[in-house]
Amino acid sequence: MSEHVHAVHPEPDMVQLLTPEGQRVEHPDYKLDISEDEIASLYRDLVLVRRIDTEAIALQRQGELGLWASLLGQEAAQIGAGRALKKQDMSFPTYREHGVAWCRDVDPLVLLGLYRGTNLGGWDPKSNNFNLYTIVIGAQTLHATGYAMGVVRDGAVGTGDPDRDTAVLAFFGDGASSQGDVNESFVWAGAGNLPVVFFCQNNQWAISEPVERQSRVPLYQRSAGFGFPGVRVDGNDVLACLAVTRKALDDARSAQGPTFIEAYTYRMNPHTTNDDPRRYRLGSEAETWKLKDPIERVRAYLTREAKIDPSFFADVDAEAKQLAEHVRKGCRELPDPTPESLFDNVHVTMPDELRTQRDEFTDFVNEVSA
Amino acid sequence: MSEHVHAVHPEPDMVQLLTPEGQRVEHPDYKLDISEDEIASLYRDLVLVRRIDTEAIALQRQGELGLWASLLGQEAAQIGAGRALKKQDMSFPTYREHGVAWCRDVDPLVLLGLYRGTNLGGWDPKSNNFNLYTIVIGAQTLHATGYAMGVVRDGAVGTGDPDRDTAVLAFFGDGASSQGDVNESFVWAGAGNLPVVFFCQNNQWAISEPVERQSRVPLYQRSAGFGFPGVRVDGNDVLACLAVTRKALDDARSAQGPTFIEAYTYRMNPHTTNDDPRRYRLGSEAETWKLKDPIERVRAYLTREAKIDPSFFADVDAEAKQLAEHVRKGCRELPDPTPESLFDNVHVTMPDELRTQRDEFTDFVNEVSA
Amino acid sequence: MTASGMGTATMAKALNDGLRKSMEDDPKVVIMGEDVGKLGGVFRITDGLQKDFGEDRVIDTPLAESGIIGTAVGLAIRGYRPVCEIQFDGFVFPGFDQIVSQVAKFHNRSAGLVKMPITIRIPFGGGIGAVEHHSESPETYFAHTAGLKVVSCSNPSDAYWMIQQAVADDDPVIFCEPKRLYHAAKAEIDEAPTPLYKARVVRPGQHVTVVGYGPTVSTVLSAAQTAAEDGLELEVIDLRSVSPLDMPTVVESVKRTGRLIVVHEAPHSFGVGAEIAARVTEAAFYSLEAPVLRVTGYDTPYPPSRLEHEWLPNLDRVLDTVDKIMEF
Amino acid sequence: MTASGMGTATMAKALNDGLRKSMEDDPKVVIMGEDVGKLGGVFRITDGLQKDFGEDRVIDTPLAESGIIGTAVGLAIRGYRPVCEIQFDGFVFPGFDQIVSQVAKFHNRSAGLVKMPITIRIPFGGGIGAVEHHSESPETYFAHTAGLKVVSCSNPSDAYWMIQQAVADDDPVIFCEPKRLYHAAKAEIDEAPTPLYKARVVRPGQHVTVVGYGPTVSTVLSAAQTAAEDGLELEVIDLRSVSPLDMPTVVESVKRTGRLIVVHEAPHSFGVGAEIAARVTEAAFYSLEAPVLRVTGYDTPYPPSRLEHEWLPNLDRVLDTVDKIMEF
Ligand SMILES: Cc1ncc(C[n+]2csc(CCOP(=O)(O)OP(=O)(O)O)c2C)c(N)n1
Ligand SMILES: Cc1ncc(C[n+]2csc(CCOP(=O)(O)OP(=O)(O)O)c2C)c(N)n1
Ligand SMILES: [Mg+2]
Ligand SMILES: [Mg+2]
Hints:
The complex is a heterotetramer, with two copies of chain A and two copies of chain C. By secondary structure, chain A is an alpha/beta fold. Chain A has eleven helices and seven strands. Chain A is globular and about 70 Å long. Chain C is built from 13 helices and 14 strands. Chain C is globular. Classes of the chains: A alpha/beta, C alpha/beta.
């Protein structure tokens, strides 16, 4: 039936370069030439971002944060994708990409304001080419696509200059794949052959809804009908995520157009610290995914295959401790916003009527506190 | 590259059962067993709806209509799809499906109110299972999908009862394929395996924008990534449109899920009577499409192959004349709405504050006219 | 065992019981939204309903608000009575087009031949220490949209009855639920409902009329208590319905007190307070001793939670405005 | 040869010239929307701009409004200054979420580190005999949204200057264009602009202040002419900016006349008139001889075109309201 595109494809293998047991395996399309030091450095990233996450959860329990969205289980997807970025590339996270922030050299403390309630993000997307966290599901995929339109207009794709050619990396989740905005971003990216890579972390759940509520076919298949390739990668395999994202970003920079990447992974923790997964999923599910832990397999590889000096792991753990201390201490010291700041930055130039509101507010506050 | 779904497919043939020259051809997947009388009856439909369209355009020129969206060139797509519907099936048109309305036994005069400005549609979608025209691009595809959810909940699919099993047919255009709503309706339909068929008339243009602005790959490929099949049909071939839509609706009724149909056709007239296509497309384009005229090929078949009695064509033309007269006369006689009716049907139960507005308005109107 | 049966309930439980009652009363009622099934919604308002009424009537939808509202329109055309849950106020906007151009207009466009008995539940308002987009007050957008009715409950008993009345209404209703009161103190459930679109005088007084709805009613009531200690009697009106507005109740009160303050969380400008001020001034021009004053959110985005209590109308701000209005 | 150069122009030509000027002045200005390229937009406002500035700066987008606004946000983050055309007022709603949750808030969320110099052009209002969704007046939704500025031009000269000022503004501006005046009579283009957010007294008078903006200004002016024949001098104010509101200009006038009427096409309730009424009553309470009255669209969906002239604020309705307000 030549004119039929069949919906039900045989489930293909995911791209995998490191097995859960820590064996390196080859993949015809994704050669990754990487040194053992580099792998060790990825291990360090994975451990440190998990530690940041652990501390943030603890801080939420202690009331220092109002909320936290844990990345537990998704470290490899985020570090693999994040480490594939070049300095000039731009990234658009959701609210969960703490690992990508780490790869962009964003101090973890910068991420805490939003969750502590001291600001609404408040960092400069340009300073580390890492956009503000976006909570409205899917909205950022259009921002990434528009940014990519700007990149093209700046002549920053396909020049062959490795420091000039620029790609954009947009993050979103399996649930987000149902939003109109996300699909519209596919329309724009496909029709415009834009230098944007869509990185979907399919962590199997959108709060309480399993991915089957969103689609009966694998998500990576979504993009073909919009005119660009889709690939599924083992989201718990940092090497595969690095290799696949690197290739997609290279394609984007060299004007080959967009790629859709589905990182197949699992949300090991509740959706956020507010959530109670016992209402909708079995603990046994997490147990089976534990066997695919993104960190264990790298550690196993480094120990067994690379025969790395055990002191390395001790050093990383020590560094993690310091980082944890930095997060704990820094969080408590985050400055509270002043009441007057309520009226700052609503506009670039404040209208008189808002200035009046602010002045009345300030008088009132002083009055009350007086 | 097993895990890649390739974006660029070789352009497949469209399903075609009647060539532009009027030759019937076979297709492995779409057998159409149809009598010559039935084909003659389709010819009649095609001629009559084209005549309705011609009259409406004339009425707009004469100022009797404020606007008209012509179906010229798309008759076969609409009649083929419309005649595939069973009485119990529901249909959701855009603003251009006058041919489908005809198949649903909707008096053409009913369609004119919206374009004359005497009402906002104002017909009962249930009386002919033909929804109100929808002008907001794509919105109706979600309505169709929700209606299909209702059909499932009513147990009206997959029972095997030919008079009970119900399908839903949603119409939209090539431009509409970019709207979030349309893609969200694909998400719902795919994830829910709903009894809805998406019939996209790709008439090559969204006002001044060629379909390439919306997608670099054929539109029928869009649905596979949402979990259901897509098929491209010769939209100027009424037999093919009938066969393909019939199969898709059968699948829907028998709980086989949704189908996406791309009817490949051409908008021969301006977008609406307000439009000036000379600004954005060459007349020669329409000339080449003229050779694929949906009516000519059927007439050629009936004359050459079916050796139908010439008097048949004369009768159809006579009927067309009568219909034209009915439209001309009926249009001028459409009742103007009364000022008081401004406040009718805003709510099922009118709030007091609106009643007050209406009463003040009525007093004022009487005052002024007094 | 429903709330009315059990005497007292929290607002969350009252809403849950009310929805259960609506589903029992009318088999065409379906609940749809994100996480409304097994989870029972992030606020547990639909807790247990999917278990008892099945997945066909309590539907976990894909993650897309336009899809939720748009498919609800189709279900309504088919003869269903959908109750859509929007997870948080800030996420109603992707569904805004379907609400204002389809839900609000369909009955009118069909010359009254199609009804849109859709209820859109929105947990709204602030004060829960949430991140951005989780504390918005979008009611004014809907109140300004012809064809929609907009109501808000301020206590468990109204929650129990109003949700049932909204679902039973053949017109589309935007049902705004003050999320920070969901799990506040239990309260008695009245034996019988008040008409849905009627305001209620919740505390009589002769000096100043103060109007609130949803989350601000409790704030206004405590202000009234404090003011009373200084011998100022505030007449507190719970609007209950934002659109239509029960002006007779408000105007009657203002004609006695001569002074009116409107309190809401939505931004000040072009808000509900403005409409009430304009109408009252027109209807009671010669009775007003002072202009209508408003205590509202400021004309800024909802602030980070550490500042929300300064931003929100609070006891001090209401009392301060009472002083102001008495100076006229 | 731009409008200011040629002395007089229609509003359509003035907007076209203004946009051309903006694109010449700033290479970061890009125009995006449906059919804005070869067609020049359905109203020809961008006529010839793609030919002269290329497809990279005048972009025919896919057919999706959320996509248009959302990609504009991304372009702004990259340092561009997008001008988005919404084809008709009724079609801004699919883009509503990106406008209120992203465009309006981004500068604030980034603590002032990112600017959103986006102009969203909306041909708005009725009176052109169009089908449904083509005659809406959505300005109030945006005026109620903190972070947005909302302006409307009523004549070619303002159109020419205001569009340039809006595009040059580093804040997002919703630019409402009274479509039925696009091709009305040519008018002189002033040599210099008025500040964008200032109202203008377009006709002095001492008896009643009448405020309009966009399409209603001309209606109000002809009412003033008629009223003058009966010896009633209306002071007519063209608001120009709906948000922020230039209250000093309005209040100063009302303090002299003691009477105010606000005229707009948007539905009556929770509209712009309500906010102006509330503010003026607060600022000029003791000067008011009568309550602020409103002449507006009714609280119904926009009607079929055969009834639009009854529905819209027209000469008779304004004069009738002038009589009413004089009776106080
Ligand atoms: C437009 C919108 N609707 C609803 C929500 C509430 N919400 C927050 S996260 C979430 C689930 C997202 O799931 P997914 O996209 O898979 O990302 P994940 O949280 O699993 O990383 C929902 C429904 C939201 N933030 N935005
Ligand atoms: C949401 C929305 N945006 C814009 C428009 C204006 N508009 C009317 S028809 C049209 C083009 C539609 O093209 P297509 O979907 O291909 O249908 P066709 O008119 O070609 O049949 C546009 C942009 C609209 N009606 N609705
Ligand atoms: Mg997920
Ligand atoms: Mg088309």
